[in-house]
Every structure is written in structure tokens, then in C-alpha cells.
């Protein structure tokens, strides 16, 4: 048996005010995107903003459905919209934020596992790490340099090799 330990680095900022201006702008766009959320069941509204290498910013929000598997997370809405509208432009960064009707979201909001895998796909497509900025309504903000920190053993093309 061999034991392997994975470690990763990320930055923690006490508030969005400490972020570099481009990260703060993107997080603000993610917070604005929350207004497009449709979350009548969870009451948890998520917004995401994707910044492309060409400077365009694409937003997305979570869209729930009474048949829960039919809904879609904000991150995938934004990433898929960006990929559909700019298929040859790499994603440079993504910011995610949330609010709740029931409590204050004062912790960074990480993407779910499915969204992590979807974001990894675009890192692999362009061989380009995506900067991830995670915030809530208030409080600390986490910044990661690439999805390897959030999904170290991502499914990749080697899993499809025969």
C-alpha cells in the first residue's frame, strides 16, 4: 500500500474589499446575477459570473424545477452560456455568490461536484487553469488558482481511453 496526500493553496480575504479590482468586479457581477435565480423550493439563490479571456463577462443563476434533477446550478448556466456564445474563447475566471431567503450567507459558496467537473472540462479543453473566486453575501472570500484545488482527482480523458 502507498499513501498519497494531496495539498492545495488558496487565498482567504477578509472581505471582497480586499480583492484586486478584477476579482471584485467579477464577484459583484455574480452577486447581481442572483437576481435572475429561480429557487422557490430551496430559497437559496446562487449567481455566477464567468470572465472570458477576451474580457466578456457572462452571468448565470440557479434555475430550480419541481422535478429536482431538471434544475441547473448557476455555475453551469454561466459556463455553458459562455461556451455556447464564445466556443473558441477560454474561460479566465469564475466568481460564485449566493443569498438565502432564510439566513445570511456569510461563507464562501463552493460549486457542487457536478459543477466542479463541468468547469474542469473547460480547463482541459483550453489547457488553461480557471481562477475561482468564492464569496457569500458577506464575509470572507476564497480565491483558487484552478480547479485542481477543488477537484484534485477529476474525471478526465484518460478515463475514456480503451
SSE order and pairing:
Layout: E1 11-13, H1 21-33, E2 44-52, E3 57-61, H2 74-85, E4 91-100, H3 113-126, E5 131-134, E6 141-145
Descriptive account of the structure:
The chain is of the alpha+beta class and 162 residues long. It has one domain (11-151): Cytidine Deaminase, domain 2, CATH 3.40.140. It contains 3 helices and 6 strands. The chain has helices at 21-33, 74-85, 113-126, and strands at residues 11-13, 44-52, 57-61, 91-100, 131-134, 141-145. Strands 1-6-5-4-2-3 form a 6-stranded mixed sheet. Strand 4, helix 3 (113-126) and strand 5 form a beta-alpha-beta unit. The longest helix has 14 residues, at 113-126. The protein is globular, with a radius of gyration of 16 Å. The two termini are 26 Å apart.
* Major β-sheet annotation: 6 strands, mixed
CATH class: Alpha Beta
Q: Return the CATH architecture.
A: 3-Layer(aba) Sandwich
Mean pLDDT: 95
Count of alpha and pi helical runs: 3
Termini Cα gap: 26 Å
Full CATH superfamily name:
Cytidine Deaminase, domain 2
Strands across the major sheet, in which order? 1-6-5-4-2-3
Q: Enter the CATH topology name.
A: Cytidine Deaminase, domain 2
- Going by helix content, strand content and strand pairing, the class is alpha+beta
Shape: globular
Annotation, overall tally of beta strands: 6
